[in-house]
Amino acid sequence: MSVLVVAMLVSFVFVKNKLKIKLILLRMIGRYVKAKKREEFLYDLCVLYADDVYQWVCHTLRDELEVRRGLKLYLCDRDEVLGADKPTELYNTMDSSWKVVLILTHGFLASDFSSSTMSMCLSFITLTTPNRLNLIVDVNLKIPTNIHFRSGVC
């Protein structure tokens, strides 16, 4: 019985900390991978949202984070280059952002880019930026329980 409990605890620790364990193992064999620092990025936060929360993001959230707290935000409606290829622009922005904030609403999930945006967000979770993705979920949004994120973070 005690062996089973120990095995369950060890598995839980491995599952919850798999990126950290990979990083430790790489360091042990001499392949040092260092986590990127906040100062190495152009933006502190890349905020991804749909048009239905535009007012809240561009006024309330921006005032709180950019004006009061001094963070440098990337907001699509303000910083996106006109005429640029949207997926390429999104990729470059996420790559140059310390954290990515994804605001999940009905409008976001109904948009054409929701699936590719979520996939791209998950692909940016790496050994050097393990806790990069932050989700803000609308309380009225019913997310199916059978969604599985394979990154180990969500």
UniProtKB/TrEMBL annotation:
It comes from the Eukaryota. PROSITE patterns: TIR (PS50104). InterPro entries: TIR_dom, Toll_tir_struct_dom_sf, TTC22. Residues 41-154 form the TIR domain. GO terms for biological process: signal transduction. This is TIR domain-containing protein.
